[in-house]
Amino acid sequence: MKNLTLFLLIISYGGFAQPKVDYSKSAIEASKSWIDIDYTGDGIIGHKLDIFLPKEGKAPFPVVITIYGSAWFSNSSKSTCFNDGLGQTLLKNGFAVVSINHRSSRDAIWPAQIHDVKAAIRFIRGNASVFSLDTSFLGATGFSSGGHLSTMAGVTKGLKATTINNLPIDLEGNVGKFTSESSEVDAIVDWFGPTDFLLMDACGSSFSHNDLKSPESTLVGGAIQENKDKVALANPISYVSKNTPPFLIFHGTKDPLVPHCESEKLYEKLQKEGVKSELVIIEGGGHGPGVMIDKYYTQMVEFFKSKMKK
């Protein structure tokens, strides 16, 4: 029973309930769309992205990349970001929406996932004129594990490689054909993403992140408490600096899977480094329910607009 409970929690980890999206219906707000673009040229499903342009406004359009939650276990869930909430709200407010896949933790362990995110960003910059995109503003947002990856894209801005606890890490990678383009992002909206894996159980998670088969352990290739140096390489909180772009963070107090202390710790570090940031703690909010709603989608849009170059 314990293993079954753990399995069900992990399945739901990525985004409470992840609807299967029929793009023919959900893309109703898009003036133009491109589906399943291979952003690396290698043909694998984990390297596909979708682009949607707003119906209203003048091209080229500012860009927001959206990253799904799946506990890093899915390589093909980009459609879950483009529904009547997150993606559609951005689109209705004049942003081009780029929803991306990435390799799962079963395809490759960390840092493959951030290499994919950055490859997608570079692809978008390298093809901006083709898709009517204005990459003078490029934001990123994601929920749960997608929040983690969005946050990582932000906190590693301008940092191609580093060493933490004597372990080197390549944060940029050489995935795709546009390696000369910038992978930097201008603003991040993080929806309840993990930020410090080692604290999750102590903060009150409903299942064991310390377990060998947990999402975090799978991501780094071993039980997290036995691989603390490797975990530091995957923790966004390790990279926060004065160069980090502005952040807006949402988290519910009743999130059973990613405790809200994860966002509080990130916010504390952002504030310490002088990064413009805001934390919205939602009383009674869960792992999506009560958090990913119109009120906070609107706040997300206002945040992104406020960070655009005038």
Can you offer a commentary on this structure?
This protein is an alpha/beta fold. It has a single domain (34-306), classed as 3-Layer(aba) Sandwich (Rossmann fold). 28% of the residues lie in helices and 21% in strands. The chain has helices at 2-13, 23-26, 86-92, 112-126, 145-155, 215-220, 228-234, 261-272, 294-306, and strands at residues 30-38, 48-54, 61-67, 96-100, 133-143, 161-164, 167-170, 187-191, 247-252, 277-282. It has an 8-stranded mixed beta sheet with strand order 1-2-4-3-5-8-9-10, sandwiched between helices. Strands 6-7 form a two-stranded antiparallel sheet. β9, α8 (261-272) and β10 (277-282) form a beta-alpha-beta unit. α4 crosses α5. The radius of gyration is 18 Å and the shape is globular.
